[in-house]
Amino acid sequence: MNLKSDLDITNNHQQRHYDLDWLRVLAVLLLIYFHAATVFYQGELGEFYIRNNLLSPVLGWFIFFVHQWHMPLFFLISGAASWFSLQLRTPMQYVNERFKRLLIPFIFGTLVLVPPQVYYKLLTHHENIGSYLQFYPQFFNGIRPQGNFEWAHLWFVIYLFVISIVSLPLLLFFKQDMGRRWYSTIATFMKQPGAILLPALPLAMIEGAFRPKWFGFQNLYDDWANLLLYFCYFVYGLILCFDTRFKQTIVQHQRLVFFMAIVTMSIIFAIQVTEVLPVRGYSGEYILYQMLRGLNSWCWVTTILGLSQQYLSFTNSILQYTTLAAYPVFLLHQTVLVAISFYVVQWNLGIAAKFLIISTATVLVTNLFYEILIKRLNIPRFFFGLKPININK
After folding, report:
1. CB contact set of 129 (below 8 Å; sequence gap of 6+)
2. pLDDT digit string (tens) for 36-47?
3. What is the Cα–Cα distance from 140 to 273, expressed in whole angstroms?
């Protein structure tokens, strides 16, 4: 049997969950446009490696909206993938596969793909750091924000690795008879009116209790808001695929969760526009706002899952190609985007033109790298988390 990369989706009966495959591919593609938009953004979510002189309020709202649900969706899909992966492996094989698919690409990416991003960032600040070869040893001088060392967008990979290992006992529990009975009770209860919103309660509590202190610096060891939030979504992903009744419940209550997503997002937008949000801290108003964000995130993720089940449960040649390419593209895209952005922001063009050039060029160049340098060569495939090609075929 051919085993795909970490995020590939297969169920117990070896049938593809094409809706989840599509969501993963589209989420990676959206991430490219999201990061292209951050070149024209400055706000509470931080500052990107490259920043255009002129900023875009429209792209700022786009970033704010996508940020609400995009990474939670990633971790939910990853939870589903981990569940399916464990069905094909023993626990030790599962752990070994996590090392190959996640930890090795993370180490490789941190040493090879992240330093160019830091280099271009320092160049934008006109720091005298010499050539890239002269800079590279300086990459290890201290940890961000005091130093240069960081893991950039690869935080997702190391978080996923840790969460997928820590959650292994829970995965094994669901494979046992007791776990199946426990889940069956939950799946039956979730069919009750309004019960689809109950999984948002832990998310809202995490946001309210932890976000005021840990706003979102992804350093793993001191980022409890994100770590707990994404762990919940990861667990929701494996629960989603354990029993088809949960997916049926999502479709059944799709109108309700979509309505709630619109209402809560409108309130959040209104709070941002009117600037009535208090300073970050443990005030009642700020805690309620963060709890609202937790509810809104779940509503959007659930809405997207429902729509994907209705409209994306099919396959074609595009999906077959991009399913394998998605993970290497994710690993590569930000390095390519930062390099392209460094030069494009210096051109005398409008924001729309620069955004389209940066995003389109990143999609094309990243996929070109995958096609030429990764897809057909076993050594690069190993470092980018893909299974080797069987050269004996």
Report:
1. 119, 122, 123, 135, 138
2. 999 999 888 888
3. 41
Provide the token pair at 360.
């389109």
The average pLDDT across 244-272 equals 91
Q: How far from 177 is each of 190, 274, 306, CA to CA, in Å?
A: 20, 52, 28
Instruction: Please give the mean pLDDT across all residues of the chain.
Output: 90
CB 82 within 8 A of CB 236: no
Q: How many residues does the chain have?
A: 393
Task: Determine the residue type at 388.
Answer: P
What does the CA dihedral 129, 132, 137, 140 come to, rounded to 10 degrees?
80
pLDDT at 23 over 90: yes
Distance of CA 273 to the CA centre of its chain: 27
Please provide residue 46's backbone torsions phi and psi, each rounded to the nearest 5 degrees.
110, -175
Going by the DSSP 8-state scheme, the letter that residue 103 receives in this structure is: I
Asked if residue 238 has pLDDT above 80, the reply is yes
Residue 15 has a pLDDT of 59
Please state, in angstroms and rounded to a whole number, the distance separating the CA atoms of residues 74 and 155: 13
CA distances from 175 to 90, 102, 106, 152, 153 (A): 12, 23, 29, 35, 33
Q: Is the dihedral of CA 19, 23, 24, 29 positive or negative?
A: positive
For the residues 42-70, what does the mean pLDDT come to?
Answer: 94
> ∠ at Cα 263 (261, 269), nearest 5°?
95
Instruction: Give helix 91-98 / helix 155-166 axis angle, nearest 10°.
Output: 170
Tokens for 283, please give them.
Answer: 């005030």
The tokens describing 173, both together, are: 């529990």
